[in-house]
Amino acid sequence: MIPRRALLASLAALAVPAAAAAPAKVVASFSVLADMVREIGGDEVSVTSLVPPDGDAHTYEPRPSDLRAIQGAKLVVTNGLGLDAWMDRLIDSAAGGATRVVASAEVSPRRMSEGGRQVVDPHAWQDPRNGVLYARAITEGLIRAAPDRAERIRGQGARYAAAIGETDAWIERTLAPVPPDKRKPLIPGLKALMARHTGDAAWQRKSGAST
Ligand SMILES: [Zn+2]
Fold first, then answer.
1. Can you give the pLDDT of all 211 residues of the chain as single tens digits?
2. Cα–Cα distance, 62 to 131 (Å, whole number)
3. Which of 26, 54, 113, 197 has the fewest CB atoms within 10 Å, counting from its CB?
4. Which residues make Cβ contacts (< 8 Å) with residue 125, sequence separation at least 6?
């Protein structure tokens, strides 16, 4: 027969894993947003990015498994500004109970010329000052979706936003001695990325760099 004290001790040991709740499920439209959720949520969240690494967030066609992922999520994160409009339709179809965050909600969008028309540049996160606004929106959304983990999420979110701010300040300091008309990015991939998406990314305005 098992001594009563030993039995109680083993019951207590069994109770420990049950007390540690599973990570909160979060679905993000694409990898930039998923990375931000991971940085802020840490171990408190498990993140799914719907657009695969070789996919295009502008023209993505959702799969049935994406609908199921949203139905099982506590939080859904979209970019907004028309970049991932397919996600709005998907969330409506899912009719789930997930909290929703539009990461660009507090951003003043920048306008750009495209084919002779004035359009909103949806790639707002490329300006680090907007990156901070994204981080804050995601932090608040995570706290609403998982209030039992608010303290850790708030701390991690504040650290992440501060890190983006420090990077922005570093860019300013580093480029300060170079006159704006002499600034040119030397990384071909960055140049291609900027040309592919906008030809005139928000980062360009921020840094004064030319392509
Ligand atoms: Zn794009």
1. 556 666 665 555 555 554 567 999 999 999 999 999 999 999 999 999 999 988 999 999 999 999 999 999 999 999 999 999 999 999 999 998 899 999 999 999 888 887 889 989 898 998 889 999 999 999 999 999 999 999 999 999 999 999 999 988 888 888 888 887 777 666 555 544 454 444 444 445 555 444 3
2. 26
3. 54
4. 32, 79, 103, 104, 131, 134
- Best CA proximity match to 124, nearest among 26, 211, 209, 198: 198
pTM for the structure as a whole: 0.79
122 CA distance to ligand 1 centroid (A)? 7
Distance (Å) from CA 36 to ligand 1 centroid = 17
List of domains in the chain: 21-177 (3.40.50.1980), 178-211 (no CATH)
Query: How far apart are the CA of 194 and the centre of ligand 1, in A?
Result: 9
